[in-house]
Task: inverse folding
């Protein structure tokens, strides 16, 4: 049953991502992108990363894509967009490059000599914090525990990065003053 | 669940390839930017799969930080695109050829 869900969601993610890439209208593309992000959140649920699935829906499918749609509609860039299909050289080159990457990925993860296939480890319900690493859990408690112990410095740097991004956006989007 | 690690990695790799196709093929800067987000998303999927099958939490924490950085990156990048549009009235990459003229 769960296997069928995996195939369904994987197909949803890949097809909607492809629709986003080839759709000539940017708004339609953004809608397909939202479907792709929600499908990825479903794959996260299948991998028992529930917190990240919620974050994916809230941050990516919610905030980021709303920002994208807002900018697409604000700029109204669809008028007079030259069709990317007319440029035969770019079209052929990108399809060949795409094919090469697909062949690389398929030969790496399909067939006889792929990566070793580990079994699913049992999910620890309530980690005690002993041992080398933090075991895989479904509880959000281990996120907080990791953020304030092992990943304290990256956590602070991420906070500083958000501050820098906020100031940068204000500076970049400010209207230039008239120099008289 | 009998789905193995390689199936998830295959999906992540194909998603990355589709994002790469979008970056190379499209002319619209906003669509190129969305394709970049798709590639980041593919890496997130691979990291979560590795984390689940390795039995440690570190991959999930990495994804947490990647989502933070991607959100900041989208805000800054879209502000730059809006500033570009104000100056040049276009976001198509084939019309931004000031250096070649």
Result:
């Amino acid at each position: 049953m769960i296997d069928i869900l995996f195939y369904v969601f994987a197909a949803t993610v890949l097809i909607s991502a492809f629709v986003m890439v080839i759709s000539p209208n940017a708004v339609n593309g953004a809608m397909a992108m939202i479907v792709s992000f929600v499908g990825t959140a479903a794959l996260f649920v299948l991998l028992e990363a529930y917190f990240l699935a919620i974050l994916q829906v809230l941050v990516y499918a919610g905030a980021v894509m709303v920002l994208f749609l807002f900018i697409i509609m604000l700029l109204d860039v669809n008028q007079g967009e030259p069709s990317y299909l007319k440029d035969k050289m770019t079209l052929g080159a990108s399809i060949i490059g795409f094919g090469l990457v697909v062949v690389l990925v398929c030969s790496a993860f399909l067939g006889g000599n792929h990566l070793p296939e580990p079994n699913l480890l049992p999910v620890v319900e309530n980690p005690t914090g002993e041992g080398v690493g933090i075991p895989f859990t479904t509880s959000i408690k281990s996120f907080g525990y990791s953020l304030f112990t092992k990943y304290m410095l990256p956590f602070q740097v991420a906070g500083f990065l958000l501050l820098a991004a906020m100031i940068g956006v204000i500076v970049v989007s400010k209207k230039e003053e008239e120099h008289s | 669940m009998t789905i193995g690690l390689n199936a998830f990695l295959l999906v992540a790799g194909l998603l990355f390839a589709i994002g790469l196709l979008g970056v190379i093929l499209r002319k619209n800067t906003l669509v190129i930017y969305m394709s970049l987000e798709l590639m980041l998303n593919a890496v997130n999927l691979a990291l979560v799969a590795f984390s689940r099958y390795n039995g440690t939490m570190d991959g999930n924490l990495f994804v947490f930080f990647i989502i933070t950085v991607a959100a900041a990156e989208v805000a800054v990048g879209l502000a730059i695109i809006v500033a570009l549009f104000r100056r040049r009235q276009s976001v198509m990459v084939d019309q931004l050829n000031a250096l070649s003229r």
